[in-house]
Amino acid sequence: MKSIEELLEVIERNLSEYRENNLFYPAELYDPVFYTLQHGGKRIRPVLVLMGLNLFEDCIDEGIASALAVEIFHNFTLLHDDIMDNSSQRRSRPTVHKKWGVNTAILSGDAMMILAYRFLAKSPQKHLSSLMNVFNKAALEVCEGQQLDINFEAGSSVQEKDYLEMIRLKTSVLLAAALQMGAVLGNADQEDQENLYLFGLNLGLAFQLQDDYLDTFGDQSVFGKRIGNDILTNKKTFLLVKALEISAETTREKLVKRMILNDGNETEKIRQVTEIYEDLSIAELTKQKIRHFHQNSLDHLSRVKVDDERKAFLLELAEQLITRDK
Fold first, then answer.
1. Pairwise CA distance, residues 270 & 98, whole Å
2. Would the pLDDT of 306 be above 70?
3. pLDDT tier for residue 40 given thresholds of 50, 70 and 90
4. What mean pLDDT value characterizes the chain?
5. From CA 185, how far away is CA 52, in angstroms rounded?
6. Confidence check: pLDDT of 326 > 90
7. What global pTM score does this model have?
8. What is the sign of the dihedral through the CA atoms of 258, 78, 217 and 173?
9. Residue 5 burial (CB < 10 Å; 0-12/13-18/19+)?
10. 108-140 burial string, b = 16+ CB within 10 Å, else e?
């Protein structure tokens, strides 16, 4: 079994070799693509493809093309998300549409989607139909999740179940699909594929809720970006949705008023909303929900019919994702 670090090295090496060994023209189209991929974050999704494969097979070579397809697709969604959100920075750098313009960002994102399918097509032919079905289902669900997120921005009321469904689609399904694609490549039976998918789905929910938690209650020096940005943008996170759901009428009115008020005092807004969250024990309620989904993920992984020692790195990754501080 390969460690998480070894799998990360495989991903980085193959991405670098792909750029070095091919001629990409015009540069105006492809430079933003590799700018996006160059600082690709944690590379969780392609690593999960290889981990899903490595769970059943020692050789991971047949999974590299699918892993790169998933990584390129994920970064394509981020590129287009930044346009829709008009975000000026991602991973501490200017976003593509701020650096090259909206038209180039849209076109480069489209190219990334095509490149993702080009990599997927390089997967072993005997598995290609199954891989396409898993990938296409997840890709469409990610779009559905993004639309729900857009809908929530304009909506006045979002329930906890609606929010969880949105992040299931927008975030979790691609993590789950990555694992299932690895399992397909590893010749796993349908039951193991399903349990591995559900492991990833629940882990993805815990992962996103941890993101929500850190944006308000994280350590800014570690988190790497300003604490309270979700509060400033009135983003409907689990914290806000839960606070609106359980608060008494006077507290709810105070919270809604603070969200609507735009007096330019960002520090005070963050302080007041965080104070309401603390009074309602929102931090602990969020942590409880994270632990709930984490335990669900472990339950499904325990049902996968391979030796426990082969699951060690997946368990390690799951722990890292829900206890991370950035």
1. 27
2. yes
3. low
4. 94
5. 8
6. no
7. 0.94
8. positive
9. exposed
10. bbebbbebbeebbeebeeebeebbeebbeebbe
